Amino acid sequence: MELICESDNLNDYLLELNEVDYSNPKIKRKSDELFNPNQTEIEKAKVAFKFVRDQISHSWDIQSNRVTCNASEVLDFKEGICYAKSHLLASLLRSQGIPTGFCYQRLMLFDTPEKGYCIHALNAIFIKSLNKWIRVDARGNKRGIDAQFSIEEEKLAFHINEELDEKDYPVIYVKPHPKTVAVLEEHANALEMYINHLPESL
Prior knowledge:
The protein is an alpha/beta fold. The protein has helices at residues 25-34, 41-55, 71-77, 82-94, 178-186, 190-196, and strands at 4-5, 57-58, 79-80, 100-108, 117-127, 132-136, 167-168, 171-172. α2 (41-55) packs antiparallel against α4 (82-94).
């Protein structure tokens, strides 16, 4: 699939946003822990990806009711659904001057179409030394999910089944999609939100 940038200006993928609040002292402290001047951009991207994938729990996986949204909040509580985790990864990388955007997939919520669909969030990172965007999915690995950082072949958490009406959206968004932000802002119980209120399409 050919990725499509929402903006041709790479600086737009460095913007600080309400959800990507990398000036927050908590984000700054974590950035100082994770990164150093000797790391290449690829090393920084991999370190940040692994941190968010492995050290920030997915709310559904741990059956937590807590809803997090802004990157600093996700970092503080160390949990969030894929939307929230994508905010944190973008925040960490944008703090290092690495352009990072938001990508989405339409997936079956569980194991059959009858159980409904949901929008799933992941990130795209621009690697300047390679002059290309790569997509990574830091939702968190578990049985049946093995997402990895790869600059060559995509190794995402989920494979799209178009025959079952799943979809890969090609756009790399500058900001988190309004539908995904709205659902986080409008609900107080992550499990109930996950089962009943995630958007089904963009």
